[in-house]
Automatic annotation (TrEMBL):
UniProt name for this protein: Class I SAM-dependent methyltransferase
Natural source organism: Bosea caraganae
GO MF annotations, alphabetized: methyltransferase activity
One record GO biological process: methylation
InterPro entries referenced in this protein's UniProt entry, alphabetically: SAM-dependent_MTases_sf
Amino acid sequence: MPFPSPGHPAVEAYLTEGYDSVVGMSSRFAASICARLLRLQTEEGVSGPIAEIGAFEGRFFIALAHALDPGEVALGIDIFEWPDAGVKDRFEANCLKHGIAPERRVTIKADAGAMAPADLLKHAGGKTLRLIHIDGEHSRAALTKDLALATACLADGGLLVLDDMLHPGYPTLMVTVQNYLEAHPEIVPLCIIDRETIVAATKFVLCQRSWFERYQTRMLEIFKEQLWPLGADFEPHWCMVLALDTRLAAIT
């Protein structure tokens, strides 16, 4: 099954020529889909900055930043201490090497879970965020805090992208997501981006309920070659599943 077009020549070039050279575990399939979702937002009149919680060395961050319109900025948030103190310098160097100039990004060395929404919005120039990718500490407590921060800073029409969902190494994160969805009925799953491997794991994309039909209508056409036929049942909410392998199990 082919990868979907990311909808941006700069993203396409980076995914083809540079993505695998940046240390990280994020899926190229997911990066292509999220870049295309940013273009879809632009087409639907949603604009503004984006943020990644857990930027690490910049693999996924660079793809997202290339998908932004002129004047929009990407915020990279990380404690930048793991696996060593040089990770922040490598993040900055990777951004420069792959075409994300300093004026197009803001590097924030901080624990996102300890940030107040006002602090994050200040870094974003007072603007709410149209996409927030959460790939921070993989614990229930940390994800709960990151979701609270992201929800408070999300723009109308914004998207929350959650990394390493359904990962066998972090099985309890789904409990946090389910608790969050029950506490925030205004937010629903928009799609699941299936894994490439155990390392390049599944992502959930969430949106405001008021935007679900609007986005879904467009996405069913944009990603028609990547649609897994049965979709995902969140009881009672249904959303699409985007996958490289869209086969159903054979019944014999």
